[in-house]
Every structure is written in C-alpha cells, then in structure tokens.
Amino acid sequence: MRITDLKGTVELANGTRMPYLGLGVFQTPNNEIKNAVHAALDFGYRHIDTAAFYENEDGLGEAIKSHSISRKEIFITSKVWNTDQGYDETIRAFGESLKKLQTDYLDLYLVHWPIKGKYTDTWRALETLYEEGRIRAIGVSNFLQHHLEDVMATGKIVPMVNQMEFHPHLVQQDLIDFCKKHSIQYEAWSPLMQGGIFEIDLLKDLSEKYSKSIAQIVLRWDLQKGVVTIPKSVKKNRIEENASIFDFEISEEDMKKIDALDCNERIGPHPDKI
C-alpha cells in the first residue's frame, strides 16, 4: 500500500479503488450520523462504512444526500446481517439497504459474519449482485482462513476484502498473509480496541516519541501494515485527529514493537462461535 494522504486509495483485485482510511459508523444513531458524516466529508474522508445491523443506513443516506459532495465520489460499504443470510434473503436485504441509503449501487458489500450453513449461499447472492453491476466490489467480514477457503472452493469469485477485528492485541498475521497471497484486501474494525489502546504503555511511549496521539500511532500502524482502517467517532475533533496521520512514519523497529503486543485478545465474538 502506497500511503499518500487522506484521499489515497488501495486497488482491489478487480481494479476498484478503495480509500484506505474511512469513517466507521457502528453505534452511531441516526440523530448523530449527519453531523459526523458531514464533518468527515468536509475534512476529506471519502469512505463511509455501515451495515444493516447498525440500523443507521437511512440516516447515512440522508447525510450523504444533503452534502454537496456527489455520491460517485463517496465509497459506501454496507453488510448483510446474519438473520438475512441465504441466497434469496440476501438479495432482498441488499435491496432494502439500497432504499435506505438512497442509492442504486454500493461500492462494497460484505457478508457480515460466517453463519454456518448460510454463508456460502450468501456469497453466491453477492456474486449475482456483483455480476449484475449493482456492487462495485464484494467481500466478507470476520472470515477466518477456513471460511475463506470454503467460499473460494464453492464460489466463482474470490472475496476482494476481508474486514476483521484488528488492533495491537489481535494481529492474526497468518490470516493477513493468507489474504495477501490471494489478493484479498485486509481491513480493520475496532482498530482502537474501543478505547483499550490508551492503556498500553508502549503506545504511550511512542505517542511521546512521535508527538502524535496514541490513536494516530495505531492508525498509522494499520496503514503501514497494508490494512484499510475505519475508526469510528461522532466528534469532529476526533474525526479530524484520526485522519491527521500523513505527516509522519513509524520506524520498522517500532512497527515490530507494536506487532509484538499481539496476544490474541478479542473484543468481539470469535467468528467460529457467532
């Protein structure tokens, strides 16, 4: 990944350009999402990540529609929820997401979790929607290697993105390497460990060394590892701070120190136990 500025992108396997830094809107209620999204777009963000499960697709649709930046300049991701999985169910759920988002296509659509007995049929639905031109890129979320191998064995298209819980306490380097080998772009959710990063002594030290906030250190680490990241915030100052990471670089030695914090600690559910 070549890191330039906030509007920089990474090329997915099908040639689609995906902004490598975006705004996550998990747990952002509809009455707060407009201000958050407008603050992000005003500052230069062009990637917004939502999901049906977040119950704010309609708010996001209104926020984007009411901003001066055109829809085609904004990379929108959404995800099909667990109770909507299956071939026909996914097609219907996708249509509902489009209505709420007030758009006729998505830039990226993901299978939210690998629901046993469902996710391969769900993936077939995503392939159909992709082939119909209704989605620019398709991928998965929370898929471990064996889930990816199932999809690759039964499907026609290799997932273009795998969005995973990723932070200094959960690196899963073997999975990153597997994804890289198969041209699957790795993406982070919960990169700030829901605030847990602020208690890590090494990150406090690096914050002082680089004169950057702990959040900025972690988000820069994400990008330097080639991981697309979507930190969530509703506060304008935090939204701007999270994106002010393009005027410094973490040394290789310090990158390895952050890598070494990995202890396989999850904040969210284990994908095999969802």
From TrEMBL:
The record marks K79 as: Lowers pKa of active site Tyr. CDD domains: AKR_AKR5G1-3 (cd19157). The active site is at Y54. Residues 27-261 form the NADP-dependent oxidoreductase domain. It holds the Pfam family Aldo_ket_red. InterPro entries: AKR (IPR020471), AKR5G (IPR044500), Aldo/ket_reductase_CS (IPR018170), NAD(P)_OxRdtase_dom_sf (IPR036812), NADP_OxRdtase_dom (IPR023210). It comes from the Bacteria. Belongs to the aldo/keto reductase family. This is Diketogulonate reductase-like aldo/keto reductase.
